[in-house]
Write a sequence for this structure.
């Protein structure tokens, strides 16, 4: 009986974790998430995040969304072009 409880308990635990993940997929799970989206909408700004819930709702609200994984490259490119155009003087070590 103890072994069965441990085996079944392990399966139940895995099921609960998968259920929680499925339920949270695409859901805003905190007040700061909502605040970020509202502020971005008010300022006509983009949101940089790795959270799928924020991405989904940004698209629903018409807010530009930038995946966090691509943001450093985008920023680096912008700074390089700005430097070439003498908009922002930067040193090579900063890029």
């Amino acid at each position: 009986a103890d072994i069965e409880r441990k085996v079944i308990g392990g399966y139940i635990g895995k099921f609960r974790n998968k259920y929680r993940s499925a339920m949270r997929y695409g859901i805003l799970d905190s007040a700061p998430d909502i605040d970020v989206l509202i502020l971005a909408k008010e300022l006509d700004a983009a949101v940089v995040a790795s959270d799928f819930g924020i991405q989904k709702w940004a698209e629903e609200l018409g807010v530009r969304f930038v995946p966090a994984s691509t943001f450093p490259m985008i920023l680096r490119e912008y700074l390089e072009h700005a430097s070439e155009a003498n908009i922002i003087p930067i040193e090579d070590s900063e890029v």
Summary: The mean pLDDT is 83. The longest strand covers residues 47-49. The beta strands are 47-49, 65-67.
